[in-house]
Each structure stands twice: as C-alpha cells, then as structure tokens.
Write a structure and sequence with these properties.
It is a single chain. The protein is α/β, with parallel strands linked by helices. The protein has a domain at about 5-150 and about 180-205 and about 255-265: NAD(P)-binding Rossmann-like Domain (Rossmann fold). Helices cover about 40% and strands about 20% of the residues. It has helices at about 10-20, 35-45, 55-60, 75-90, 125-135, 160-165, 185-195, 215-225, 240-245, 255-260, 270-285, and strands at about 5-10, 25-30, 45-50, 65, 95-100, 110-115, 145-150, 150-155, 170, 180, 200-205, 230-235, 250-255. β1 (about 5-10), α1 (about 10-20) and β2 (about 25-30) form a beta-alpha-beta unit. α1 crosses α7 (about 185-195) and α8 packs parallel to α11. The N and C termini lie far apart (about 40 Å).
Length: about 290
C-alpha cells in the first residue's frame, strides 16, 4: 500500500519532511491558502490543495496526517473545517502528528522543562496552543503524536541577511535564553516517529544548547566577518508587541526523549553547527 501523507498547512517544516519522504515513494498532499503557493508546491512534487476547499479525496487516501497550521482565538482552523471528516478517518490512520510549540510551558526564568512539565503558558499564542493540543487529543482513535517545537531556523530563515544589511539587533535581557532547532532536525524527528509510531507520545524538538539570543547574532556576525551589532537594553529597545512578547518567557527545553525513544542524533546539536551549515549552503548556491 502506498504511504500517503496529508499535510494540513504545508509550510517550512512540512516541506523539509517531504524532502525525506518523496524519494521513498510517498504521495504527499499539502494544503495552502493561495493559488501561487499551490503552484510552488506542485513544482516540488506535492499534490496541492487550496484551503479551505474540498479535501475528500486526500482524506480518503491518507495513511498519515501532519498538522502544521497554527490556532487562533477561535481554535484550530483545520478542526473548524474538517473535524467530522478527521474523526471519521482517524481509526484507519497509521500516524498523525501535530506541530505545537514549547510556548505551552510558559515562563520558567531560565529553568529546565521537559514533556512532563505542567502547561502554564503566559502568552495568548501559548494559550491557544494548549487548547489546540487538547482539541486534537480529544478525537477518538486518532494515533496522535504531539511535537513541541522551539524556535525554527534553516535555509532562508537565519540571521545572516539582517547582519549584512545592518538591521540585526543584540537585545539584552539578563537571564534570557531561548531554545531553537534546525528544520532538518525537525524533519528527521518526524520521520523517526513515523517509522516508530507511539500514539499519545509527546516530544520536545530543540537542540542541545539553549542560548541567549544575542549570542546567536554575535556568532553570525563573527562567521560573516562583520562587526558585532550594538547591544540594546530590552527595557528601552524599540520593539513591536509581537517581538517583545517572545521575551516574556525564558526557559531551557530538554530534548532527551527524541534521543532515547526515537534514536535521533541531531544533525545540528547547537546553533554553531547550524549557522555554519547555512553559510556553506549560501556559498554553494552562489557557485
């Protein structure tokens, strides 16, 4: 039987997973909200579907389900449109994965959290995620796996362009640390889970080195041979409400479970290896 993945909200992380699955003969259906993006997905070998729209065909074919779309104040957008259909097909799915966020843990003043840490989000987006996780968990017979992702970076999503054009900022908030993960490591964790389903499992996805954000910017500048962007105090820095909200929570996220349960060995265990690889990729693409 052909393995068929229905990817709801086929974005950055899902596309990285597709690069692993397509060469193995998988059929992948992906939803997007625009015709232009649908055409881009088609060029990548994805069967595109503009959402909202009729998904009866891929829902009937799907053996695996990946949910990447984020929730809003009204809940999960996919369940708003597809809950009855997903409930109907749930018992015959082999695997379902929901991409959540480590924001569900809230603020721990730089302390460590793991998958058993109580969910105490302090931001609006974190609270939406907790509600969405629960909504997906409530679907009977859905072989659900929840992946709580730290800050995602990868090709096209690194600090180099801002460092080069002089807009990078080293915002200093004492004690502030973030966890992060390279998109290729997200893809390999998802692939490992698909190969070893464990319905009900929850996994943190992050690298081994929670670090202050200014250290990452500084390292990117060093790799480029650029001067360090000046330091700015968090309390007085001009920031959008969205950017400022990211600093409301500080925690170090444990990733032991992806290693012990799934046998994953991170490709980029820290941002140093990840940024070096992104720079090498840029150079290779430029010839």
């Amino acid at each position: 039987m052909t393995k068929t993945l229905l990817s709801l909200g086929h974005g950055f992380s899902a596309r990285a997973l597709s690069e692993l699955l397509l060469p193995q003969g998988w059929v992948i259906h992906g939803t997007t909200r625009s015709a232009d993006k649908a055409e881009a997905l088609k060029q990548e070998g994805i069967v595109p579907h503009v959402f909202p729209g009729n998904l009866s065909g891929p829902l009937e074919e799907a053996t695996h389900l990946l949910i990447s779309a984020g929730p809003d104040a009204e809940g999960d957008p996919m369940l708003r449109h597809l809950k009855d259909d997903i409930t109907r097909i749930a018992p015959r799915l082999e695997w379902a994965g929901y991409l959540s966020t480590t924001g569900v843990y809230g603020n721990h003043d730089g302390g460590w959290v793991d998958e058993d840490t109580p969910l105490t989000p302090s931001t609006r987006r974190g609270k939406w995620r907790v509600a969405a996780e629960a909504e997906w968990q409530a679907i009977p017979d859905l072989p659900l796996h929840i992946f709580r992702l730290a800050g995602i970076y990868g090709p096209g999503r690194g600090p180099f362009s801002k460092v080069r054009n002089g807009t990078a900022r080293r915002i200093i908030k004492p004690g502030q640390v973030f966890s992060r993960i390279h998109v290729e490591d997200i893809a390999q964790v998802l692939a490992a889970s698909i190969a070893q389903p464990d319905p009900g499992a929850i996994y943190n996805m992050c690298d081994d080195d929670p670090a202050p954000p200014q250290d990452v910017i500084a390292h990117a500048a060093e790799l480029l041979g650029q001067p360090l962007p000046p330091e700015e105090d968090f309390e007085t820095a001009e920031m959008t409400p969205m950017a400022r909200s990211f600093y409301a929570e500080s925690k170090r996220v444990k990733n032991d479970k992806i290693k012990t349960d799934l046998g994953v060995r991170l490709i980029y265990p820290t941002y140093r290896e990840g940024l070096a690889a992104l720079l090498d990729l840029e150079k290779a693409q430029q010839g």
